[in-house]
Amino acid sequence: MAEQFRVPESGSIPLPTPEHQQRITRQKWFEIATVILLIAGGLTFLGWRDYRNHHRPDPAATLGESVKTVEAAGYRPAGTAEILGRQFVSFVQPLEDFECHVDLVGLGAEHPVDTAVIWLTPLSGSVDPSEQSLQKAVNTVGFAAQALVAASTQALETASKTMEFISDAKRPHDKGVAGTNNGWKLTYVTYREFNAGGPPEPMLCLILERLASASDAELSELNRGLHKAVNEGADIKTALLAEGGR
Q1: Which residues contact 151 (CB under 8 A, 6 or more apart)?
Q2: d(CA 218, CA 243)
Q3: What is the residue-wise DSSP string for 116-146?
Q4: Nearest to 190 by CA among 26, 27, 23, 38
Q5: What pLDDT digit, counting tens, does each position of 22-62 carry?
Q6: What angle do CA 166, 90, 242 make, to 5 degrees?
Q7: Which residues, other chains included, contact 4 with Cβ-Cβ below 8 Å and sequence gap of 6+?
Q8: What is the pTM of this model?
Q9: pLDDT in tens, 87-117
């Protein structure tokens, strides 16, 4: 077995090697994520029902309206792309120890949103977040989902309480799925390990998919790629661009 500790020049307390420290860090992320995120899923979302009028029209009715909603929430543009016949409009919002990303997918500004992907990554070099900053980041994902589809609140609550561990994925994760009462499927994923030393990886992903889009034959290739990216724990937009975007 490779040596996991080294002795500092001044003192006798052994210190972890860089490689072992990274494993410790990733395990710490696992402990924080599985405990805090699931607690947040079960409890914090309960307070979001009255965040806005639950019966208001959903901005996700059109891609153009959704873009305005996300911009008004303080997200900055992060590029656009055409991927497998659909427009991807991307945004990012820096937080204390994280970044919250939003990808809106649709045929065009006047057309309905097919899918909205909201996901968190740790900021580069941020390996020891506080519980408060993690809780704020998780809340940010929920608020973004509710701003786009008001009925996502109850679906998110249900999904977070019925999560199952997916052990045979490239990046093992916990996944919960639920539906809204107005035609949306919500998928909620938290990943169990994070790369503290390399490029930031998604640590949480929330997907809002219109049911009509999920069964649209024209979107079958895109939907397969989307769920493959989730299974691999990859940035969905980057993964889909590699398969057929421009």
Answers
A1: 54, 58, 180, 181, 182, 184
A2: 16
A3: EEEEEEEPTT--S--HHHHHHHHHHHHHHHH
A4: 38
A5: 554 555 565 655 555 555 554 455 455 545 445 555 666 79
A6: 60
A7: 16, 17, 19, 20
A8: 0.81
A9: 999 999 999 888 999 999 999 999 999 999 9
| Cα–Cα distance, 111 to 62 (Å, whole number) | 5
For β-strands 184-191 and 173-179, DSSP reports them as: antiparallel
Give pLDDT tens digits for 192-202.
877 656 666 88
What separation in angstroms does the CA of 221 have from each of 75, 200, 210, 213?
Answer: 29, 26, 16, 12
Q: What are the structure tokens assigned to 233, written together?
A: 């724990």
Return the residue matching tokens 């991307």: 90
Interacting residues of 104 by C-beta distance below 8 A, sequence separation 6+: 63, 66, 67, 70, 88, 89, 90, 91, 113, 115, 116
